[in-house]
């Protein structure tokens, strides 16, 4: 079956149209892939720049942290290391109160307001009954041990 010249030309044109449309599709795909590649390269560059900036910022923060640590150590070294608390030496310096049926020593001056706010009376040692003198001495000794322990901690820089 031999095709006539006109049919051959018609098939050739159809085949050529088909090939041209396929070629156009391939060109469009190439353009799309090129644009995607450009976006990927751009994103990679941005990511690299961002990573460099993060590394730079991280290094700056590390340096600042080291400087602050040095300043803190200098401040700690320069801090006065003398005891701030003084042991009670006489009964006359002491104030007491009764709480839940027990005699308690008023150890720190700021607690006097708290005790009074609870409705309890703070009295000096001279007004406490003589029968409590042993308890008073035990309370003062206990307080002095606490103070010595705290002073030792202060001197050791804890």
Word description of this protein:
- The chain has 158 residues and is mostly helical.
- It starts with a helix and ends with a helix.
- Strands 2-1-3 form a three-stranded antiparallel sheet.
- The protein has helices spanning 5-78, 111-117, 133-155, and strands at 95-99, 102-105, 123-124.
- A hairpin with a 2-residue loop joins strand 1 and strand 2.
- It is rod-shaped and about 140 Å long.
- The model has no long low-confidence stretch (mean pLDDT 78).
Strand content: 5-15%
Q: What is the total number of structural domains?
A: 2
SS-based structural class? Answer: mainly alpha
The portion of residues assigned to helices is 55-70%
Strand count, sense and barrel status of the largest sheet are: 3 strands, antiparallel
What would the average pLDDT be, to the nearest integer? Answer: 78
CA distance, first residue to last residue: 109 Å
Low-confidence stretches: none
Topology:
Blueprint: H1 5-78, E1 95-99, E2 102-105, H2 111-117, E3 123-124, H3 133-155
């Amino acid at each position: 079956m031999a095709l006539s010249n006109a049919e051959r030309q018609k098939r050739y044109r159809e085949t050529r149209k088909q090939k041209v449309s396929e070629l156009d599709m391939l060109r469009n795909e190439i353009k799309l892939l090129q644009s995607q590649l450009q976006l990927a390269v751009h994103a990679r560059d941005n990511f690299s720049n961002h990573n460099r900036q993060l590394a730079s910022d991280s290094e700056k923060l590390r340096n600042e942290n080291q400087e602050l640590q040095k300043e803190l150590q200098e401040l700690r070294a320069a801090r006065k290391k003398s005891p701030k608390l003084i042991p009670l030496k006489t009964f006359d310096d002491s104030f007491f109160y009764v709480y839940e049926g027990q005699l308690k020593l008023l150890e720190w001056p700021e607690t006097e307001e708290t005790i009074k706010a609870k409705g309890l009376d703070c009295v000096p040692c001279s007004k406490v009954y003589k029968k409590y003198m042993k308890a008073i001495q035990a309370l003062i000794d206990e307080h002095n041990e606490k103070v010595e322990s705290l002073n030792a901690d202060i001197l050791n820089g804890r």
